[in-house]
Please model this.
Amino acid sequence: MNIVCLDLEGVLVPEIWIAFSEASGIPELRRTTRDEPDYDKLMKWRINLLKERRLGLKEIQDTIATIDPLPGAKEFMDELRSITQVIIVSDTFKEFATPLMKKLGWPTIFCNSLVVSDDGFIDDYKMRIDNSKLSTIRALSLIGFQTIASGDSYNDLDMLRYADEGFLFRSTDQIKADHPELPAFEEYSDLLNAIKKVMK
Model:
């Protein structure tokens, strides 16, 4: 049996932190996992910057409420889910993801959670499991699934390499150059066709 694991931001929806960077007028927040491979370092830096600027969860959620899936993403998900099981495996947080899942038709998502103070500031974050993307794809393989994965960033690479088939989608030129062994696609139709070809 097949199962497809997809990254969320950059693959199905715009990057949340880039959208919040634009909404808040803080250009430094444009930095994402496309730029910084160390997720813990990136998140601690973000949390400290938010506290310095006195910005809390509500301000980020207000921005998320204005975000729509990328053009064609909902249709891609609908077709993919009609032919196989799909899980979104993301390093985002349930406090961010819920309104986006509604717009995508409530697919299954495995993600993390935030630690929020009583006054609404983000104090920390909790990973669902260490190396969550790689751990998820390994576990699915162990219980008998043929795994297919797609993502765009540094933090997706372990998942893509461990999967039976891994595909880059709308990734950076640098990541594509560094990993020519991973087929790279820019259009949902091409990614969907590649997934269909490798399904058993």
In short: The first strand starts at residue 2 and ends at 6. The chain is about 45% helix and 20% strand. The mean pLDDT is 94.
